[in-house]
Design goal:
Blueprint: H1 2-19, E1 27-28, E2 50-55, H2 61-68, H3 70-74, E3 79-84, H4 88-96, E4 102-106, H5 107-114, E5 122-131, E6 135-139, E7 154-157, H6 162-174, E8 181-184, H7 187-195, E9 201-205, H8 208-212, E10 217-221, H9 222-227, E11 233-239, H10 240-245, H11 247-266, H12 268-279, H13 283-290, E12 293-294, H14 298-301, H15 304-308, H16 310-324, H17 334-339, H18 344-350
Parallel strand pairs: 2-3, 2-4, 7-8, 7-9
Antiparallel strand pairs: 1-3, 4-11, 5-11, 5-12, 6-9, 6-10
Helix pairs in contact: 1-4, 2-11, 2-12, 5-16, 11-12, 11-18, 12-13
């Protein structure tokens, strides 16, 4: 019965996506005051189009690029609009309603978008990060020290997210997937429910994760579920028609993201300063959060294990698992998952 309640709640999410109802945050065309940096590629004044970008409060290169105003520097005649989203589920909705061109979403959300019943024609153009301990299952009761100990408990997670996918894998491995109640909440709502004792546990990402750990503890992480064969990623998705029509924009966009990854590796303090300005938290807190992710440059991403080949297989694997859990209605053809990976821009950026 509890799994039925979960399925009904998920059906509501999917219905919202199909209806085109978009729940996005504020539109933000300004930077948070970060220092301007030089464009890593020749400035392109020929691109004069409007681009709608979706971001989330996740500490990776996307926030470095946003705070540095790098796209605005590299594409001075473009009209770039940034909109904040709470989770991948709302990014999917925006793609479905044609109100977003590119947006950050997790690999589970991407697999869901490609699969039935949504069947969204989208491309994955970049891997923002490989998720590790930055997404974790946090429990309040100190007596609960394992996933199995959550039998009969109420667990919060944003549906259609990488955390949702990791949680399902952890519950299945513990044999209690039908013995818990899952509650579909956004990160902000999870924090409120946690404070009001409305939930017993939550699988969530930074920066909400750090807040929950102030009076909770970790029982498993996305790094552990990845070892069990269910890796998760934060990706940049784009509508397929936008990708086909704007290869020059994607080349510049990818070069900006590649610059940010090199900043995270070579100047982590400077990168963390940009991210801290966007998240409104101390730089030291950002530095701690960054350790929970792995960041890949364009040369690495263009290789076979990622955009070169393997990511399409990982997306199909995610979809197969979601289907086995009753979280999607059907699989797309295998070529849909492999064809959803767009490596051209990363390959071009790696050659510069």
């Amino acid at each position: 019965m509890k799994r039925k309640l979960v399925a009904l709640a998920l059906a509501g999410v999917l219905a919202a996506a199909l209806s085109g109802c978009v729940e996005s945050g504020r539109t933000d065309q300004s930077r948070a005051g970060g220092d301007k940096v030089a464009c890593p590629v020749p400035i392109d004044e020929s691109f004069t189009g409007a681009v709608r970008l979706g971001y989330q409060d996740i500490p990776n290169g996307a926030l470095v690029v946003k705070d540095a105003g790098l796209l605005e520097t590299c594409l001075p005649k473009a009209k770039i609009t940034w909109s904040k989203f709470a989770s991948g589920a709302t990014v999917i909705q925006a793609f479905g309603s044609n109100s977003l061109d590119l947006g950050l979403l997790g690999s589970a959300a991407a697999a869901r978008a490609i699969s039935a019943p949504l069947n969204i024609d989208m491309k994955v153009v970049w891997i923002h990060d490989v998720i590790g301990s930055a997404e974790s299952l946090v429990v309040k009761d100190p007596a609960i020290t394992s996933v199995a100990g959550l039998r009969g408990k109420k667990i919060a997670v944003p549906f259609a997210s990488t955390s949702h996918y990791s949680l399902l894998g952890a519950l299945a491995a513990a044999g209690i997937e039908r013995d818990v109640t899952l509650v579909n909440l956004s990160p902000d709502a999870i924090l409120g429910a946690w404070r009001d004792s409305g939930v017993d546990a939550a699988f969530i990402w930074e920066p909400t994760l750090t807040e929950l750990l102030k009076n909770g503890h970790t029982v498993t992480t996305a790094a552990e579920t990845a070892k069990a064969g269910k890796p998760t990623f934060d990706l940049e998705g784009a509508r397929a028609d936008f990708v086909a029509q704007n290869p020059k924009f994607l080349t510049v966009w990818t070069a900006a993201q590649n610059w940010a990854v090199h900043q995270l590796a070579g100047d982590p303090q400077g990168a963390a300063t940009h991210i801290a300005a966007q998240l409104g938290i101390p730089v030291d807190a950002v530095r701690r959060q960054l350790s929970g992710y792995v960041y890949l440059d364009a040369a690495t991403q263009a290789g076979a294990p990622y955009l070169g080949r393997q990511l399409g297989t990982d997306l199909q694997g995610s979809a197969q698992f979601l289907l086995s859990q009753g979280e999607i209605q059907g699989l797309a053809a295998p070529e849909k998952y492999s064809g959803a990976v767009y490596a051209e821009a990363a390959t071009a950026a790696s050659a510069k």
